[in-house]
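In the current project phase, we have settled on a layout for protein records. One protein thus recorded is set out beneath this paragraph:
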Amino acid sequence: MMRHALTILAVSDFPKALAFYRAAFDFRQTVDVPVYAEFELEDGRRIGIYERNSFGANTGIVPNAVGADELSGAELYFYCDDPAVQCAKLIDAGAVELSPWQARAWGDDAAYFRDPDGHVLVIAQVRNSTTEPAPKQV
């Protein structure tokens, strides 16, 4: 058996990324060291943020940083009970909206955001006949 337990994202400005993830989500922080932090989701899975050069010390290769108008190629997709509130929290924390809340072809309603290091964050809900799309926050 295999299960996904942890996703780690390399970040360029660790203090900025840490402040962003603390402000953007209500995840419980379980690790807090100078170059690495880890957050636990309700289902026990974890998300880590790791200062880019220190990340490279473990792998032998430092991951490339992305520019302000680029994406890293990593996407974290979250289902959320109150997407309007969560989308607003992301914007307030400094995320950049990439694609607004809308119906998606695969059956979800979702909005896409960019975190400070170019990682894509998606807030979504499964669409069904009784679920109306969340109102867009302005």
Summary: The chain is about 20% helix and 35% strand. The beta strands are 6-11, 28-33, 36-40, 46-51, 75-79, 96-103, 108-114, 120-126.
